Amino acid sequence: MVELRLKTSADFENKSSYSFNVIATDNGIGNLSAQKAVTLNITNTNDAPLSKFIIDIVVNENSTSDYQF
After folding, report:
1. What share of the chain is helix, strand, coil (3-state, %, to 5)?
2. How far apart are CA 49 and CA 37, in angstroms?
3. Do the beta carbons of residue 39 and residue 15 sit within 8 Å?
4. Are 41 and 30 in contact (CB under 8 A)?
């Protein structure tokens, strides 16, 4: 069994796929080995929504506003 771990989280926006070679070698007579190219595709998922809103507030000069953000 082989376990693959990334050093950092996979982020589709930064890199959508990773390509690497997997090499398996036995310790028997002749030290047989096999190699296979692997591509790991990252699936884009919805990120947590950002709170995007625009508020226009007009405050006259020398006056105050009690609006709280």
Report:
1. 0, 25, 75
2. 36
3. no
4. no
The residue-averaged pLDDT of 17-41 equals 88
**Residue 35 token pair:** 């190699």
DSSP state of 46: P
Buried b (16+ CB within 10 A) or exposed e, 23-62: eeeeeeeeeeeeeeeeeeeeeeeeeeeeeeeeeeeeeeee
Report the largest interatomic distance among the alpha carbons of the chain, rounded to a whole angstrom: 90
Reported pTM: 0.52
- pLDDT average, residue stretch 1-21: 83
